[in-house]
Amino acid sequence: MPAPRFLLPESIYLKNPKQMLRYPTQSLMETTRQFHGRLLVILAVLCVNVLYVHIEYVSIFWRALNLINLILLHQPTSLACVSLYNTA
Predict the structure, then answer these.
(1) What are the residue ranges spanned by the domains of the chain?
(2) What residue intervals traverse the membrane (predicted)?
(3) Alpha helices (H) along 2-76
(4) Contact call for residues 66 and 76 (beta carbons, < 8 A)
């Protein structure tokens, strides 16, 4: 049974190495495109995670502010803002 042949990019078989630099093979372009695609997906996932964490912290902050206003002013934050605006 013959040993399996591994397919190498065509650029390896070119006789002129400068030609390889000037004209990249299709496989190199596809590899670069795949890498950029994966990089974009990773960046998108990171952005979504950062936004989610940011929204969670803002939500926690808003709840804490509501609780403080409820304890001190006996009314939620939105009503406290309206009452402060009306008294000014």
Answers:
(1) 51-88
(2) 35-55
(3) 10-13, 17-22, 26-73
(4) yes
